[in-house]
Amino acid sequence: MTHSNDEPGEAERRLIAFGVPLEEQDFGDAVDPEVYGCILAEPADGGNRFKIAVRPELSGWQRETFAEWAASRFARFAEHGPEPDGWQEQSAGGVWQLWGA
Q1: Residues in contact with 96: Cβ distance below 8 Å, sequence separation at least 6, in sequence order
Q2: What DSSP element (H or E) covers 70?
Q3: How many CA atoms lie within 13 A of 29 on its CB side?
Q4: Is position 37 within any domain?
Q5: 3-class DSSP state for residue 16?
């Protein structure tokens, strides 16, 4: 199934339904151009809070692929914490970040 950047794919719709915010962000030259975006996890009372930031120029299939990857990483984070996938703790403390393509 193809879709435009304005129409979220199935994986993206599932994340939105679970309350995971997805925002577009231009990372500029600070991040390898092959990287689609990053995901953030913040352990909190009553469960983790997750967030996704993607490059605005991604095609529909790239966004969908990234959303599927993000959902799988969020599930692993919830079950095993940050260690298995190499999440990095941000300097703000308590917020974990993982880049992906």
Answers
A1: 40, 41, 42, 77, 82, 87, 88, 89, 90
A2: helix 60-80
A3: 0
A4: yes
A5: helix
Q: Considering the entire predicted model, what is its pTM? A: 0.84
In a domain, 1, yes or no: no
- Round to whole Å and give the CA distance between 50 and 71: 10
Taking the CA atoms of residue 71, residue 72, residue 78 and residue 79 in that order, the dihedral angle to the nearest 10 degrees is: 160
β-strands 47-54, 22-24 pairing: parallel
Query: Is 4 within a domain?
Result: no
Q: What is the pLDDT of residues 41-73, one digit of tens each?
A: 998 888 889 999 999 999 989 999 999 999 999
Place of tokens 């917020």: 95
Residues spanned by the domain of 83: 10-100
Establish how many alpha carbons lie within 13 A of residue 60's alpha carbon, considering only the half-sphere containing its beta carbon.
11
In a domain, 50, yes or no: yes
